[in-house]
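Colleagues,

For the teaching module next term, I've prepared a clean inverse folding example: a structure given as tokens, and then the sequence designed for it. I'd like students to try predicting residues themselves before seeing the answer, so please don't circulate the second half yet.
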């Protein structure tokens, strides 16, 4: 059965692959599962039809027959569990890969989101300038540990896994903050993720939504 995912009809990132449908597209490309995309506007996301799929009125969602999922981490986990290629066979290695998925969304991503909120939504507040260094330090803390753990390895725990997929996408959200370049091994890690053919296909597909031109084959 071909799953259907939802994505922004008009992504504020103008096709840079920062919205969370990118994680789901990338996972589906890694496992070789074709998928369909339903584009939704910000208005439609808040209407009952979409809230029936996503209680919080956001993208991405995932529909596969009777199954409806939301939360990019849960969707990527489902894909990784049901198709080969994103989780190791060994039970302990599998559990560790899932642990890295959680680390990406619950340890590394929250302070990055805080920075984006500070930069995009609070620049006019009187305390904004004073607060930014604190927010950046809260990002550096997990990045220091992540960088130490990765060392000169290619991936977080042996072969590329769903844990790396989630972590690379989360780190991409550091964008123009300059924080990623403080960690050469993490910069190289993100570049390795972006160099994967599956990543490139997923990126091209979401960029095509913005340009209105089909991805080059
Ligand atoms: N925890 C959920 C998940 O992981 O799926 C979070 C889902 C979520 O926040 N979705 C966002 C959304 O639907 C899109 S990804 N927002 C619409 C709304 O809340 O009304 C967040 C995002 C948005 C824009 C950019 N960007 O432009 O760079 C990057 C990421």
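(Answer key — instructors only)
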């Amino acid at each position: 059965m071909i799953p259907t995912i939802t994505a922004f009809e008009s992504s504020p990132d103008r096709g840079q692959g920062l919205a969370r449908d990118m994680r789901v597209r990338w996972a589906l490309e890694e496992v070789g599962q074709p998928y369909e995309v339903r584009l939704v506007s910000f208005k439609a996301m808040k209407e009952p039809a979409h809230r029936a799929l996503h209680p919080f009125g956001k993208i991405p969602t995932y529909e596969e027959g009777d199954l409806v999922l939301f939360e990019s981490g849960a969707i990527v986990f489902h894909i990784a569990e049901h198709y080969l290629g994103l989780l190791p066979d060994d039970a302990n290695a599998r559990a560790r890969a899932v642990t890295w998925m959680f680390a990406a969304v619950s340890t590394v991503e929250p302070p990055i989101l805080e920075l984006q909120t500070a930069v995009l939504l609070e620049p006019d507040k009187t305390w904004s300038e004073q607060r930014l260094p604190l927010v950046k330090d809260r990002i550096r803390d997990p990045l220091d540990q992540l960088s130490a753990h990765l060392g000169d390895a290619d991936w977080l725990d042996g072969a590329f896994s769903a844990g790396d997929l989630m972590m690379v996408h989360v780190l991409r959200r550091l964008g123009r903050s300059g924080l990623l370049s403080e960690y050469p091994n993490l910069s190289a890690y993100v570049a390795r993720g972006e160099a994967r053919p599956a990543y490139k296909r997923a990126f091209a597909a979401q960029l095509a939504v913005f340009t209105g031109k089909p991805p080059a084959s």
